[in-house]
Model the fold of this input.
Amino acid sequence: MVAEKMSKTKRKLSDQEEGKTGKKRKGSENENDYMKDNVLCQVLKKAGLTLKTGKTQNLLNCDQAVFQRNLQIALKRHENFPSVLDEFVESFQEYIEDPHRFHYSLLPTAVPEKCESVRSHSQDSVVRLLIGVDILQSKMMMSLLEKLAEFMENEDCIIEHGERVNLPRLLMSQFRWLDRILDSKELADKMLEMITIVSEDIQREIITCLPEVLEDSEHSHVATSLRDLLLEKRSLTVPILDALSNLNLNPELMTEVRGTVLQTLASVDMENLPVVIRFLLQSVTAADAQEVVSEIRQNLDFTSSVPLATSTPHQTHGRTLSGDETRDVESLTLDAVKSGIRFQKSVAEAWIKAIDSVKQPSDHKVVDLFILLILYSTDRKKPVESLIRNKIRSGAFTEVLLQEAFTERAQVMRHYFPVVLSLAEVLLRSPEPAICFFAASMYKNGFVAFDTYCQQEIVGNLVTHFGSGFEEETDSSLDILYQLVDKHLDKMAPFAIFVKVVLDYLDNLSVPQIRKLYSLLSTLAFRSSQGGNMIQDDLHIIIRKQLSNDNPKYKRMGIIGAVMVVKSIAYNQNGHTNSSQEAVGPLTDSLYKQVINLLQLVKTSSSRMSEAAALFMDELANVVGQGHLDSKVEEWITENVTTDFQDHYVIDLEEAADNSTVPQEIRFGLDDDSEAAIGIPLVTLTEASLQHKKAQKLHTGESPDPVCLSPHFRLLRMCEHRQNGNLDNIDALLGCPMFLPKAEVMDKMESLSTREKDTICMSLFHALNWLREIVNAFATQTDPEMKGKVISRLHNITELTKTLEKCLAMHARFCPPPATFDWYENPVLNAPVNTNSEGKKKGRKPAKKKKNDKENNRDEDSDENSKDSSHLDTQNETQFPEKADSSEKPCIDLANYRAFFRELDISVFTILHTGLITRSSLDTELNTKATTDLSIQPPQLEFLLEDFTRKLSHSLIAATSKRKSFLKTKSDKNVGFSHLDQCTPKFIAKKVIKLLPALCEHLESSNGFFQTLMVENDGLIDGPGSNTEEARNVGSCLHLLLQSLHTLFSWNGFLMVENKPYLKEGLITLVSRTKTVGSSEITFQEALKSAFQYIQNFAETVPKLGTAVMLIKVMLALAEKSDSKETSRKTATVAQSFLKREWLNAEGQREKGAKHNENLQFILKTYLCHCADFLGAAEEITTKGVPDLLEGDKNSHSEQYPTLARPTFSVYYKTVFTELITCVKGIQPGKQREDREARLDKLLKWNQAVRILHILVNLIKAFDGRANLGTALKCGRQFIDIFLRQGMPLLDSMFRSNREDVQGLLKNLQLSTRVLHHMCSHSKIIKDIALTNQVPFLKKCLEAFVYRVKAMLTVNRCLEAFWLGNLKNRDIHGEEILSQASTVANTTVAEGEEEEEEAVGGEESEEEESDVELESIASDDSHSVQY
Done:
């Protein structure tokens, strides 16, 4: 019993102790409880939620769903329901007045550890639990949203545990993704109301959560409000667009919203631009993609509204964006465009169309390049490549645009480096020079702008082009590497080992390419301050191996390599220090010894091979002439290489012995007999050379070869000029005579042996090359006596050229001696000569083609495509009177032998400053006799200008230049430009601009010659005297002068900002011919306008159509640079005047032939493209010009347009039809926002275009030639196709308002579609494959046209006006084509396909051409023209 009592006592004590400790624990827990005698605490406690004082999380003792149910039941059963709800909300507002209590009420609630019936240990916050109760939701939401107004701009955050807490953001997150919202409209209105009250930061929070709070039924209302807010507050652009992107809107409202966003695009803040672009492109539909993208492109200007990466920081609402931030925004903007392109196919197509539709080069922006790079990276390579090529051809994409993209936006461009590299690689393979030039600019700008990794990739990519097998591609790659080494040597030096790999491909390279390769390799090896010396030993080993090789091919490589190494080792800037290269000090003794040893090695190894020795001297002369060799090396070359020139090639006239087999005489001596002491024994040298070759002996130093005469003299001249600064020591060579075959021997050449013929022809070739080199040397002399002798040498050249032509005509199989030594590809030097001579034999067949075609063929390349039309061109130009009776002998065109003449230096053309005096002037003004020695007569001027224009065409690449050919047979077109290629195009352009006064002087003199003829012939330019030899020469000079001006002003280098001053200088030179102006007194556009007028003044006196074409080209080149359309209109006026002139040949007959047609097509196209009203001009030609041909015989021509005759009808027909298609492409479909007048104007244009189409297709009945049929079928299909795409949408929108006009247009068009159907049937009958290939496509268009009209009438509830009928198969003359049913038994299917056509109208009638017809076309046929 005691034990039990004791145990009970102990248990009581322990229970009391436990109770005491429990009370203490309970009391400590209750200290943080929010205890207040109000409805809030009572009801929440009863439902299972314990509120805390703001120091810990609120405690939820049950699952949140159970709590919400209990709370709703407790409130409904409360005695004061429903007023208890307001009391409850007021109590909660009081509770959350403390920011810390408010903060914890927004955080998840805690759960006791012993509670196991809950879903997780962390449940929804108190606020979210309360707004989830239906009877409380509305009042709680309104109360909480109103509390947002209490937070000010800088007081919306509290510090909790050392961290800032954004209470408005936390509050708005409670509204997201609620299970149920009872009154969504009330909530939407309240949220929109609060947006107008609260601070901007809270506005952003409210707008951002709108799509996640509201139901779909309120989305349209909210979107309308947000759209209005967007116009009011630009700073809220980003949250508003984010919200709009997530709202579910109908298409009409989305279109309105998108329109509002487009209005703000021009003024949007820079940092908000990516969001705006992303919204626009992701919300666009296929129907309005084109319009939206065009608007984006118009406003997305990286240089104005988005000044990306500019030098001045960009301000955004008082905050300055740094350069890195602006580049980041630019990248994000382009990423937004990229996502839009990937998101929808229609967006990509719209971007391509938007960029393609930009016609003016000045309208293109840098953003266009970035967009194309993005498109190229999204598997749209082919259309992007095609678009870029077209833009480059038209001059729209320039190097200026590239430089702007790479220099100012290099960091952004770096993201697209793989795309840039891939695109540049593709463009570099193009056969068109302008496109290759653009690709080269991409490589060069990328190398300069990007990092080391990209530079390595660029160099490696360029090296891979050497293995392509295409010479042009290799040339382009080499040029790029050469320019990179020249301008960025230190940056290229680390990659020397990459470039050295190209030495493995030497066998596949031409000599010019090898020269350039060795030049850049030796520069890397010997002139770079870092990294390049690793390849020095490799170069020495390879060069010595090549020099010791007896194969001429490898010996040439070694010679060129050795000279390039000498140039690099002994390099001396002489004041021209490149910024990328360190200054080079005096040549050390060890390097000097190395250079001399190398030169001696080359001299020894090449002395036994004439061509190799000549190549060595030419290469050395080029290096010496550049003036960058060390003076000690120059002295050594002068003493050791040039001293034996006099011993080998010059003899005393008194000691000359006539021991040659061919009789010779002294000719072309310019000095007095007392001064003429020396001469050049060309015949003796030639015979000795031929004897050695016949004996198959190698040349030694004791037996000089005349092949080396010109190269040796060139080296002598260069050294003399470098050493003494003048040519006084060798000026006797200018006037010294030559020993040439006697004239009587050449007259009887047919009776001579082959060896004697070879001697004569070879002597003449050597003589011409010697004279050319003499002119090169002394052309720049200012002494009047010297200049007179140079001009005399030009007379000698033209005289010898005629003699050589006669001799070659009697020795057709002659192989000329080489004059240039850097283009032979084969190991055997003479092999290409044999091949070329055979080709030239074929080219000589048309005897009268020689010089008459030069005017026509000289536009681009004189010898290209001429053979195709040689049988037609014989009637094109004037004939030589002296050649008329010698037509039995073949006539030689020395243009085919161009590769065998020495190249004229660019400095030679300073002779042009001496003026022009014609023979007729000399006859009438004998007092000018004293000045003839200082004048250039037309034959000499023609000779100089022919070479001058070829040089310009080679160096100054136009934006729209001809395609280069990959064919090996045409590689000789680059022969003769070795010296020219060492000059930059900029240098050449500056030289030409300095020559412009002389060119203008000759141009005016030539023009004056024809003006005098016109005066003498009573205004007729084709009168007596227009076909003389002198007139032909002057006409050719006029053509060449215009061609040189065209080449100059078409140069794509003038698109560069740095070259604009040179262009202005050239224009002012033209202007100064008529008035005195200074460069500072006249603007560029004023100078351009005056220069254009100066050129236009020559239009009245052009003698030939080919010259007229060249004049038009010059005017177009100037008009392209003008901001005014006036120049284009004037060009069209001049072109129209040429169309209205009668062009006659030498016999007084109308010109005709392929070349004439080509020229005529160009002039007609120029007129139609640049006239003010194309449709009016085309209608005038078809309605006023063509009827004269229909009424006359086969020789008839149009009175208004004399160039329009039956032989040229197909030219007019094709050109007008083609330009009609181009015109209607430009008539855009009507837009929704377009006014009625604009739509009516487009309808009138379509009406006029349809009338012209009707006339053109009906002309086939009278001119049913195959070419005309093909044009009608092809262009007719294109017209119908464009009408369906661009014309029918316009008719749809105007059918109700202009019903009669639309109906008349369709009726007129139906007349044309019927004739097109007859052409299809006719093509099948004549069984012409080329024509029948067009039939399926045309019939498909005709069928689509029928159903498209039916659809339009159905939409407008006029289907009763549409009636289908079967059209019988007829030919173009209206005769019915018999079907198989009438000729073959048991066959019921007609051979010809029946075509359905439509008619819109009321009356029914039948035309004679069909039994089963359509409804009436119209009783009024005033719009159609019948023939």
In short: The chain has a mean pLDDT of 78. The two ends are 145 Å apart (CA to CA). The longest helix spans residues 985-1016.
